[in-house]
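Re-run requested by the PI after the first attempt was lost when the workstation crashed. Everything re-entered from the original request form. Ligand of interest: flavin mononucleotide.
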Amino acid sequence: MGVRIGVGRLAGAVINEGGIGVIASVGLADIDKTLNAGYIEDSECKLVDEIRIARSITGSKGPLGVNVMVALTNYESLVRTAVKEGVDLIISGAGLPLRLPAYVDEKTALVPVVSSGRALKLVMKTWRSKYDRVPDAIILEGPLCGGHLGFSYEQIEHPETCSIDKILAEAREVLGEEHKRIPLIAAEGVTCRADIDRYLAMGFAGVQIGTRFICTAESGMERKGQEHYIRACAGDVTVVQSPVGLPVRVLRSPLVERMLSGQREKFKCPYKCLITCDMKKVPFCIAQALLAAREGDWENGLFMTGCNVDPITQITTVKEFIAELLQEANV
Ligand SMILES: Cc1cc2nc3c(=O)[nH]c(=O)nc-3n(C[C@H](O)[C@H](O)[C@H](O)COP(=O)(O)O)c2cc1C
């Protein structure tokens, strides 16, 4: 989870409890120090730092992944950096990762994130014909999940029309017999064991968890920021247009209210971090707003979230949270 929420410390802690740890590569560079130059190089260095932090926590054991958003201007450089550092997998969405196989070696597992059978079909066709590769696993994000959404506003208003079980059926149709070989991972609203069991019963091989990890001791978000998630209920969650060019699900914060009332924030664009962002048109800088959220700045932060915030009532360690998931499994 970007920006700087799910990085080395959280990824390392998840791996130590038996999960796959994922580092979000977006927004790691020091924006102030790279005002004039050096954004790409600093992004690479900071990604290497986070990978090494995770490795030092786990003793270099366990599966470590890096998430790279397709919409990033420095997409290729981040993927290549992660591969050079020997990470086990690259997860890539927020756009279609059609060129991803061109930037990796054969050892690195590739996990695209999609929200429809149509998107998956395009990824499969391109990867097969151009690179002779198929995904090593596929993450299916449902319409209620956190962060950027691969759905239209109409679909988001009627999530039953594009629910995760429908996406699963579409994915299976696209994959045919191959669906037995490629693990499908559900990403939407997991906060407890019952959620996981529901997805396993549907036929998913695993889950990706976002929002619930924000309120862990190992998350990069400051305590002040975490408290907004603890206080929040489902009614505080809304969807707005992101400079990424996709709808994004967020907590209704003062920044969101200002944006919805048509106001534009004053900002400088130190580096055009998103391919899709037109700084003359967008109402705020998403990099700055996500960094503000990470620091707990309620006035100016953009607090990305999934729909399922009601069960998040306290900050726990990753160890406690995962033990809870495993214990409930044995009951
Ligand atoms: C704060 C936040 C940051 C996120 N950052 C990223 C990101 O950098 N890249 C990405 O592909 N998905 C990102 N996501 C989406 C998650 O990876 C995940 O798929 C989603 O949150 C799952 O739904 P859940 O939050 O309901 O568990 C983010 C989600 C949240 C809530």
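Saved to the shared folder this time. Residues 1-2, 5, 24, 26, 67, 69, 93-94, 113, 141, 145-147, 187-190, 208-211, 214, 304-306, 308 surround flavin mononucleotide (CB under 6 Å).
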